[in-house]
Amino acid sequence: EYRLEMRGVCKSFPGVKALDGINLRVRPGTVHALMGENGAGKSTLMKCLFGIYKMDEGEIYLDGEKMTILNPDDALHKGLAMVHQELQPIPERTIAENMYLGRYPLKNFGPLKVIDHKTMNEEAAKWLENVKMPYDPKAKLGSLSIAQMQSVEIAKAVSMSAKVVILDEPTSSLTDNEVEALFRIVRDLKSRGVSMIYISHKMAEIREIADDITIMRDGTYVGTWEVKDISDDEIVHQMVGRELTNVYP
Ligand code: ADP
Ligand code: MG
Ligand code: MG
């Protein structure tokens, strides 16, 4: 039984088949590395997952149930959260206000669930404590480091009972200490049954934090392994594909 399953995902742009039958099977409470060279299709796959792009073909299952995901808001409400660096946080708003952005669906014209500032701050403080973020209710989001903003995003995901959290190259601008802090959060989420998709090119990180790995190459699905069963050399080999060495028949 998988937490998240993507089956046979295809997506073309004019002149390029970006995804050609991609499979992704993420077990509950695991970190699943998604690897592939630049242009392999990792971001496109995640954009299909979040409804940013409409897939040409393919299916998405969450806990065995087939899902159609319309847009990123819909994804969030169905239990999928994305943590990346080009978020659209509002720097001049407080941390709590950012955590509550987009939380309540606006598509209904019925009575809107609203939350008062006191309750919002109390709730935010509780969730931020989970990711070891000291909470200053007056601090603006823009005053935080990238690592701290990521912690806020993760706290938001957890507070919305995210089943799958996608981390797209989360350590690219973190210090060693910040990476260690992030990994502590990741391990804590795992222990609480949250699944994560971890996009990274850093082999040492994959070894340290990931359980499973799926490799993509030129928009195609190469395979899925348990990290412990595949060597670094083999990972690289699978990412770049076999060179044509046998030039003589
Ligand atoms: P990765 O994240 O693995 O580096 P991408 O998903 O960004 O790869 O890109 C996969 C392929 O799809 C590339 O050839 C890229 O040029 C193409 N591609 C991605 N997005 C678009 C788009 N919006 N329009 C046209 N081509 C795109
Ligand atoms: Mg890229
Ligand atoms: Mg990418």
UniProtKB/TrEMBL annotation:
Residues 4-243 form the ABC transporter domain. It is found in: Cell membrane. It comes from the Bacteria. Belongs to the ABC transporter superfamily. Part of an ABC transporter complex involved in carbohydrate import. Could be involved in ribose, galactose and/or methyl galactoside import. Responsible for energy coupling to the transport system. This is Ribose/galactose/methyl galactoside import ATP-binding protein. It comes from Ventrimonas faecis. The lineage of its organism: Bacteria, Bacillati, Bacillota, Clostridia, Lachnospirales.
